[in-house]
Design brief:
By secondary structure, the chain is an alpha/beta fold. Helix content is 35%, strand content 20%. It has 21 helices and 24 strands. The strands form 6 sheets. Strands 15-24-23-16-17-22-18-21 form an 8-stranded mixed sheet, with helices on both faces. A 5-stranded mixed sheet has the order 3-2-1-4-5. Strands 8-7-6-13-14 form a 5-stranded mixed sheet, sandwiched between helices. Strand 1 and strand 2 form a beta hairpin. Helix 7 runs antiparallel to helix 12. The longest helix has 29 residues. The radius of gyration is 23 Å and the shape is globular. The relative contact order is 0.13. Bound molecules: fe (ii) ion (FE2). The site of fe (ii) ion has 7 residues, from helix 6 and strand 6.
C-alpha cells in the first residue's frame, strides 16, 4: 500500500512517501528549486519520493493532502462575508487545491483520469498532530499543535493511543500563538517569512520588562474546562483584513502582510524599521514576547498533562520549533517525555497527512518510529566523484583526496580542532529545517571567536543569533542540565555552568544551547567524527550550523562545492573526499 503525502500551495511545500506503514522518503521542494520556504506545487519533491520508492504515479494507492476546505466552514463564511478581498484570495487558493489531481497529472504528463489513487483531504492541524504522534516512539501520548493558521485554526490538542487520534479541542481564527509571535516579530523589524526564530535568539539578550502589556496582547484562558487563549485583537489587524499571505507560487518565498495594528505602536512605541538600530527596548520586547509565549504555551501543556495524566507529549506546528520553550517543558508541566519531529512546521504536513490516512482512516497498526532525520536525497559515490571531477578545484589551489573512513574521520576531526571551518556532506539530506550532520558546517566549539568568524566568513547573518552544538548522546548529561534526547535540535537546555567556558561558541548568552544529541545508530559517521574530535580535545561536542549561505540548505554535491567555493570555508568533506583549500 503506497501513500503519497503532498503539502502544496502552502509554505514549505513538500512530499512524503509511506509504503506499507514505513516512511520511505520525505523532502521539501525548496531543496530542489532553491527558493527558501517555497510554496506552490512540489513537483520535484514528488518525483524524488517516487524514484526513491521505485514507484510510478500509477502505483500510488492514496494521495493525502493536508488541507480540508470544509473544516470550520461556518467561521470561514463569517469572515469571508466581512472581508471580501480575503474571501477572493482564499477562493483562489482553494481553486488550486481542487486542482491537485490535475496538477499531479500535468507534472507527470499523464491524463488526470488515469490517476487511480484515492484522494484524501486531512485537516491542517490533524495532519500536524499525526506528523508527530505517528512518528513518535510512544504508544500513548498527549498531543498539541500550534502555529499561525491552517484551515482556519491555530491550535489543536488531544491524545493519541495506538493508531488512533482523539481531538479534544482547538482554537480558531483569529486567535493564534503563531500570529502573536509573527506580529511582534514584524513590529521588531524582522519582516521576512520565517524570521521568528531570529527574535527567539534576540530574546535572550533582553529583560521581560513589559509583561503587563503582553498579558493584554495575549490572554490565557485557563478556567474550568477551558484550555485556550485569546489575542487582544486591538493590537492586531489580521482579523480585520484577513492574514494577507501570498504562498501559492513555487518560485517565491511566501510573504505575510502586516499583522500588528496602530494600537501596538501606541502602547509599545513606534515599530522598528528593518534597517533600524536594535536598541535595548527592542531586546526587552523580544524577551517579553518570548516570556509571554512560554507562559501560555507551557500553561496549555500543563493543563493538558494534568487532564490526560499522560507522561509523553508530541508537539507540532511552527510554534513547536520554539526550542527555548520546549526545553522548559520538563520543569513546567507533568510531561517527562517530549517528541518533536524534525519537520515540525508545515513541511511536515505531507508526512502527517500520509500517516493519518494509513492509521486513522485505514486503521492499520503502528510499525514506524522516526528516530533519525535522514529521509532526503542521497548521492552515490560515482555522482560525488563526477561532481568533484567536473570542478577545477585542483587548479584553484585546493588539494583533493579520497580517503578510507578512519583516515577521513581522523583528518576531519584534526581540521576542526585546528580552528578551521569544515563543510560536512554525507548520505541522505535532512528532513526539516535543521542540518543534523549530513549537510552541516562544523567548527570548534571551544573557541569563543568561532561565532564571529562563522558569521563574517560564511553565514552573513545577525550577530545575536546563536549557533548550535552537536553532542554525543552519551555525554549530554555531562555538559547539559538535562539529558532527555534532542536528536532534532528542537529543545534548548542550560549548559552546565562549569562547562560553559569549555564550549563558549555554541552557548547562547543566556547559558543555553539548542543541542543535537547524536547516537551511533542514527548517524554512525557523524558520531565517529565527534568521537574523534573528543579524542583529540577531550570535548565531545562540535559546533554545527547548516550548510548554506542565506539560501536553502545545500542538497546535491555540486551545491556543496559551490557553497564551499563561494564562502571562506577551509575544507570540505564530501562523501569520502576531503577537499582542503591549501596543502596542509
Ligand atoms: Fe501549520
Amino acid at each position: 500500500m503506497n501513500i503519497l503525502g503532498i503539502n502544496a500551495y502552502h509554505g514549505n511545500s513538500s512530499a512524503a512517501m509511506v509504503c506499507d506503514g514505513q516512511l520511505v522518503a520525505a523532502v521539501e521542494e525548496e531543496r530542489f528549486n532553491r527558493v527558501k520556504y517555497a510554496a506552490g506545487f512540489p513537483t520535484q519533491a514528488i518525483r524524488y519520493c517516487l524514484n526513491e520508492a521505485g514507484l510510478t504515479l500509477g502505483e500510488i494507492h492514496h494521495v493525502a493532502v493536508p488541507r480540508n476546505p470544509y473544516a470550520r466552514l461556518g467561521t470561514k463564511i463569517f469572515y469571508a462575508l466581512r472581508m471580501p478581498s480575503f474571501a477572493r484570495e482564499r477562493a483562489k487558493v482553494l481553486g488550486k487545491f481542487q486542482g491537485i489531481r490535475g496538477a499531479l497529472a500535468q507534472a507527470f504528463d499523464t491524463d488526470p483520469n488515469k490517476i487511480r489513487a484515492q484522494f484524501h483531504r486531512i485537516e491542517h492541524h490533524r495532519a500536524h498532530l499525526a506528523s508527530s504522534f505517528y512518528c513518535a516512539p510512544f504508544e500513548r501520548a498527549a498531543l498539541l499543535s500550534a502555529d499561525g493558521l491552517g484551515d482556519f485554526a491555530s491550535t489543536m490538542w488531544g491524545t493519541g493511543s495506538g493508531s488512533r487520534l482523539e481531538i479534544e479541542g482547538a482554537v480558531a481564527f483569529p486567535h493564534s500563538l503563531g500570529l502573536f509571535y509573527s506580529a511582534v516579530t514584524q513590529y521588531l523589524g524582522f519582516l521576512k517569512f520565517g524570521d521568528e526564530y531570529k527574535v527567539m535568539g534576540l530574546a535572550a539578550y533582553g529583560q521581560p520588562e513589559q509583561m503587563d502589556l503582553f498579558h493584554d496582547i495575549l490572554r490565557f484562558e485557563n478556567g474550568s474546562g477551558r484550555n485556550g487563549f485569546k489575542l487582544g485583537l486591538d493590537y492586531f489587524s489580521h482579523h480585520r483584513t484577513g492574514p494577507e499571505m501570498s504562498w501559492a507560487e513555487a518560485d517565491k518565498t511566501p510573504a505575510l502582510g502586516k499583522l500588528f495594528s496602530e494600537q501596538m505602536e501606541r502602547r509599545l512605541g513606534s515599530a522598528r524599521a528593518a534597517d533600524g538600530t536594535l536598541l535595548e527596548r527592542h531586546r526587552n520586547l523580544a524577551a517579553s514576547l518570548q516570556a509571554r509565549l512560554e507562559e501560555v504555551y507551557l500553561g496549555m501543556l500543563r493543563k493538558l498533562g494534568e487532564r490526560t495524566g499522560l507522561k509523553a507529549v508530541c508537539l507540532a506546528g511552527g510554534v513547536a520549533f520554539n526550542c527555548v520553550a520546549n526545553g522548559k517543558i520538563f520543569e513546567a508541566t507533568p510531561f517527562e517525555l517530549v517528541y518533536v519531529q524534525p519537520a515540525a512546521g508545515d513541511g511536515g504536513l505531507s508526512v502527517g497527512a500520509a500517516f493519518f490516512v494509513w492509521h486513522q482512516i485505514l486503521r492499520n497498526p503502528r510499525s514506524f518510529v522516526m528516530d533519525h532525520a535522514y529521509w532526503g536525497p542521497e548521492y552515490s559515490p560515482d555522482e560525488i566523484r563526477r561532481a568533484v571531477d567536473s570542478t577545477d578545484l585542483g587548479q584553484k589551489g585546493c588539494v583533493v583526496c579520497e580517503l578510507q573512513e578512519p583516515e577521513l574521520i581522523r583528518r576531519a576531526a584534526g581540521i576542526i580542532a585546528d580552528g578551521k571551518i569544515l563543510g560536512w556532506f554525507q548520505g541522505r539530506a535532512e528532513w526539516g529545517p535543521r542540518a543534523l550532520g549530513n549537510r552541516s558546517i562544523v567548527a570548534d566549539p571551544r573557541r569563543s571567536e568561532m561565532k564571529e568568524i562563522l558569521n563574517r566568513r560564511i553565514k552573513h547573518r545577525e550577530s545575536f543569533r546563536p549557533f548550535a552544538p552537536s553532542i554525543l548522546a552519551e555525554a549530554a548529561g555531562e555538559y547539559f542540565e538535562k539529558s532527555h534526547p534532542s536528536p532534532f535540535m528542537t529543545l534548548a537546555y542550560p549548559v552546565r555552568p562549569d562547562k560553559r567556558e569549555k564550549i563558549p561558541a555554541p552557548t547562547h548568552v543566556d547559558g543555553t544551547g539548542r543541542l543535537q544529541t547524536v547516537t551511533r545508530e542514527a548517524n554512525p559517521r557523524y558520531h565517529a567524527l565527534i568521537s574523534a574530535f573528543a579524542d583529540l580535545t577531550g570535548v565531545p561536542v562540535v559546533l554545527n550550523t547548516s550548510f548554506n549561505d542565506n539560501e536553502p540548505i545545500v542538497c546535491c554535491p555540486e551545491e556543496a562545492i559551490n557553497c564551499f567555493e563561494r564562502t571562506q570555508m577551509d575544507a570540505l568533506v564530501l562523501g569520502d573526499f576531503l577537499i582542503t583549500r591549501h596543502a596542509e
